[in-house]
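dumping this here before i forget
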Amino acid sequence: MKRLSFLLLAFVPVLFAVPAVAGVVYQLNDEMRLTLQGDMRLRWENFNSGVISPRGGQSDGQIGYLRLRTRLAGTLELPDGISIQARLVNRIHEVSTHYLSNPNDVETATWKFPDEVFFDKLLIEFKEIAGSDFSLTLGRQDLILGNGMIILEGTPFDQGRSLYQDGAVLRYITDTDKVTLFLLYNQWKDRSAFINDQNRRLRVGDTLTTGVYWTHFVNKLLQFDLYYVFNDVDDEDLNNRISCHPFDNNLSLHTIGGRLFGKAFEEQLEYSLELARQGGLSTLDNADIEAYMLDARIRLNAPSGVFLKPSLGFEYYYASGDNPDTSKNEGWNTLLAEYPRYGDELLPIMLNGVWSNMHFLRTDLNLICSPDFNVNFSVGNLFADQTEKAGTAPLVRSGGGSYMGTLLSLMLDYRLNQYLSFSAKMSKFAPGSYFADGKEGYWCQFQALAEF
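structure:
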């Protein structure tokens, strides 16, 4: 309780101090400028045991925690388009309710006050190298490509701590093309953390990533992405299983894919169609990989001036599951895309971020009640691709059908001013025939964000 009080007391002064210190810029000389900024995010989250295990039969109860993340960032702009960026992060995590125990300050499996101090950005960027269309970024950085179906999340096991990747990213940008070449290497833990949690597992293993991502602009109606990504994972911990993942995560993975997207009818129609295939070798069963992913999206936007500016979105997501009757591994691997894709975290907690072995049909309605207040309601139906017990990852099948369940979500976002914003999110998961004696899951989150 003392730590909970500390978190709340630490956030309140920021609500009043932010406007006075927001966006400090120092002009050091004619060619050098230093910009300092930051943010403080307070999140309270609560969910029941049905979110963790919808199969039923587990202990009943609630899980609740409060998280305070503070980030301080600096950018030093140098001559010739060179800049150095750093962002220092501290996160405090306090579990207030748990149906099993009080998992605070217990070795490396939980959090220790004051939990973490680390860099989630530490890079040098060279823009328009020698007056060309090339730029180069070296160091710790975020990398988000396309809709984030292949690469977005470099640290999936840290619960909203960060997204970073370590490595080099070379970009070539013109009016019609953007080509991104990348070479990244991320260790399973952050050995540079200054306080506590140096042994927290951030990913399934040491991960090498390289590839190319090309986006071409034809016109507003037609744009496309083409990409190739290679991943090599070295998982040294073969004794402790990560939820929704196999014991042995060693693999060599090749992913090739493309996406068509664009806007039409004065942007009243938006669409995206992405298809990808994975190949390679999984050392878990020494099997060749042959997996597929399809993501299709359409959004209909009301004409300008319509009350509440409604927009209606439809999405179908397919990720192949492993067929136990074949010698191949057909399970889609979401290695660098294990994050809350749709805003809520009920399914990401349940799946531990593994968006595999599923057909997901989702519809959402977005309403802009005012320039500062937004409402989004969504319903999604989830079906398993493979239902044999030997091939049911990420969730174990206990029932007789393929219908996993229905997800209902409500999200509210409100911006008080340019410095302060608030959000409330609520979700319910009603399990289907995939689970015997299924238990409904409830999740909610309240957030306050101060930016300065």
